[in-house]
Amino acid sequence: QINVLQAKKKFEILDAMLSFMHAQYTFFQQGYSLLHELDPYMKKLATELDQLVIDSAVEKREMEHKHALIQQRSLSFFQDFSYDDSKVEFNVDAPNGVVMEGYLFKRASNAFKTWNRRWFSIQNSQLVYQKKLKDVLTVVVEDLRLCTVKPCEDIERRFCFEVVSPTKSCMLQADSEKLRQAWIQAVQASIASAYRESPDSYYIE
């Protein structure tokens, strides 16, 4: 009985292996037939892919060229307008009395220390600002002769400077280092000009 069982086991295993091989053969044959039918479509896709690669390279080159032109225009714009030396000049002898004017950020004196953008100007020995163009002037410093101005580096913002009077101080921020220096020089020049114009009356006061 043991010999019979062993003999039976041999051909049963061989039969299972043969069935497995047939299944494998059928599977791969069906796969080959299916992919063979798709062969024309895959060749068409390969041709389209080659064209897509070429189109993508052309588009990338065009975009890089456009990007370079935009960078050149932006650089030219900032050089011509934003940081033009003529934009930061001041004139203590201006006919309209406005020594210098432009936008500055002003730190509020409240507990929140918020920063607000205002239109500042130096005129009639005073530092004033407006919230809007037609608003009434708000006087920050009544007499620049009683003030000092200094740059501030130990602060969370760049390009800041402080105008200090006997009663209060005003922290301001310019848009660039060049503008900050221009405003500081404008305040200093206005102080000097005010002393030259009315030294006697100042000493009497």
From TrEMBL:
Annotated localization: Endosome membrane
Claim: Amino-acid biosynthesis is one of the keywords in the record: no
Keyword check for Zinc: yes
Classification via InterPro entries: ACAP1/2/3-like, AH/BAR_dom_sf, BAR_dom, PH-like_dom_sf, PH_domain
Function per UniProt: GTPase-activating protein for the ADP ribosylation factor family.
UniProt entry keywords in alphabetical sequence: ANK repeat, Endosome, GTPase activation, Metal-binding, Repeat, Zinc, Zinc-finger
Pfam families: BAR_3, PH
Organism classification: Eukaryota, Metazoa, Chordata, Craniata, Vertebrata
Cellular-component GO terms for this entry: endosome membrane
Protein's UniProt name: Arf-GAP with coiled-coil, ANK repeat and PH domain-containing protein
Membrane topology: Peripheral membrane protein
Ranges of residues in domain PH: 97-192
Activity regulation details: GAP activity stimulated by phosphatidylinositol 4,5-bisphosphate (PIP2) and phosphatidic acid.
Gene3D superfamilies: Arfaptin homology (AH) domain/BAR domain, Pleckstrin-homology domain (PH domain)/Phosphotyrosine-binding domain (PTB)
Domain notes: PH domain binds phospholipids including phosphatidic acid, phosphatidylinositol 3-phosphate, phosphatidylinositol 3,5-bisphosphate (PIP2) and phosphatidylinositol 3,4,5-trisphosphate (PIP3). May mediate protein binding to PIP2 or PIP3 containing membranes.
GO molecular function: GTPase activator activity; zinc ion binding
